[in-house]
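Incident log entry.

Two folding requests arrived from the same account within the same minute. Monitoring flagged them as a possible duplicate submission, but the sequences differ. Recording both here for audit purposes.

Request one:
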Amino acid sequence: MRPFEYVRAADSAAATAAVSAMPQARYLAGGSNLLDLMKEDVERPTRLVDITRLPLREIQRTRSGLSIGALATNSETANHPLVRESYPLLTQAIVAGASGQLRNMATNGGNLLQRTRCNYFYDTSMPCNKREAGSGCGAREGLNKIHAILGWSESCVATYPGDMATALYALDAKVRVRAPDGRERLIAITDFHRLPGDTPQRDNNLEHGDLILAIELPVPSGDFARHSHYLKVRDRASYAFAMVSVAAALQLDGGTIRQARVVLGSVAHKPWRSAEAEAVLVGQRADEAIFQRAAEAALRDARPLAHNAYKVELGRRSVVRALMRASRLA
């Protein structure tokens, strides 16, 4: 471990001031990803600002829907009666996402900020533009079985590993953020994470010192609650990151699809919401044939690498299965 300064923040203003004042300062909450990265010498913070005492754990109903505190743990969120009743897709995704021990420690804000599990990112002896801008991408021509098939660039082919965010994309969530100057803003979840482009070192659109306060969910559609499903395909049934995942939700009217959400995980640098698949579904009868057409649309622009072409067909089949289960046809 490298030496660092430890600061315990008394309130949000003190926290943002302590982080924004030092370029290599980081917030510390559950630490389930950050501490691993520090042990691997990937992250080298010079200051850790402990925010675990801040009052950001509340999960409460609001006029506009539900507010989920950034410091509520994944376990608290998945098991909360308001989440289980009105947003079961989110509960499914969180429970699929990690072991019970990790869910008990990991916070919602930290979950959104978790970094890729690309082996080249973790191996400091290998080039990685995400870890060190301009050094190259070892995965581009290396072993890239777990890497992106959509939205990648020549600079980076890493994927975003989280499950919770994939469900949040389907639920039209927003992220409430406090800037160091005290101003708050809402970021649509679909605008929170970034594609790599030529700046793969930036995972999201937060500025240094920004503090996540809460995740805001809109008033749920009763149909989206009843007709939703999170499917995670992985190498083993126990805790593992997805090869492909799908968050699917439907609003049905007598068997006709009025609204649809289709989001794929572990196929791109961010959860991949497919407007093309959703457009195919809306106005159609819910059946396997239309789900297959939607799956084709969702993966039409896929660009597999040398070792991950399997993700294209796996993605198609996963979209169909998730939609079948969401529609209760399977």
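Request two (distinct sequence, not a duplicate):
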Amino acid sequence: MTAVETSSPTEPRAKAAPLPFGRGFLKDTWYFVTTAQAMKPGQQARYMLLDEPVLVGRTRSGQVYALRDICPHRAAPLSAGRQVEHAGEGETIECPYHGWRFRLNGQCAAIPSLTDDSEFEVDRIRVRAYPVIESQGMVFVWIASDPRRPAEPDHPPPVFPGADGPAPRLVEAMVFDSHIDHAVVGLMDPAHGPYVHQQWWWRSRHSMHDKQKAFEPREQGFAMVRHRPSSNSRAYKLLGGAPATEITFRLPGYRWEHIQVGDKQVLGLTCLTPETANRTRITQLFWSDHWIFALARPLLRQGVRAFLKQDGDMVNLQNMGLDFDPAMLWIDDADRQAKWYQQLKREWAGSRAEERAFQNPVKPETLRWKS
């Protein structure tokens, strides 16, 4: 008989050990999967999330769903099947191997090989279902810390100011051969720009000077409070006027920059989605009502791709050292954001394990570095 996934509400929550840097994943939180626009009615796709295969799809009636992408019968991927509808079953996912059909909540609806007089309890068989939400034109999946317990999200996905309209104006993605921790730290590192990102329209090592920025805690993260961009960041000059920008980071891996230029705005959102212990998908999304996105979108796309490739190439170089598991040095203000990330991670894991409220460890502070 096929094993049945069960849960008991009386089982105590497993206590989580502290997550060392570069290992493990944060749970009980929302991860970005794809844009809502990319998920067409009647389609489904296989994604890797935290070392687990997840089927994310949209029914023909428009409902988004997420299931573990392994049929409990013979382990075939459900994403290779099709969406079907039978009387009394509603919309279901049909396994391509033996035609077993599963409802959107993971419950088995039918096993075609059973005879009409079979007493086998089909509805006792389940495949894991994940909470999934569409928000601001994006699809988020909740990954619970204990899959044996009912997955009940206790907070919504993050809301990003400026993510207006049905879809982002620009989307680019790339997979880095990196654990999410190293990808996050590389993303928020303020000192690598002049060495890794050397474009004429950005900056070079010859234009480095002192920086001073104020930071403050935000929900599940922190922000570099709104300020005028540095004079050696040439790309901002393309926006004209007097741009003011605020950069925010939030667990488990979201970084967004919201730029105001008079009555126009630009939101650049970076979502880090851990696929496996050594692969992280970086998705860059932009929303804007600024004229430059209508006029120069091909050039902007090239710039985003160049940035991602440069960071990806540096990750590959870094892996040559990480293969030897060296100790990591964190210095002064330039690495303070990396330290905050590690503190936030520890506090999140601790608060979930101890079933208490999350307490942001970040305090308001002004940081100084040269870049």
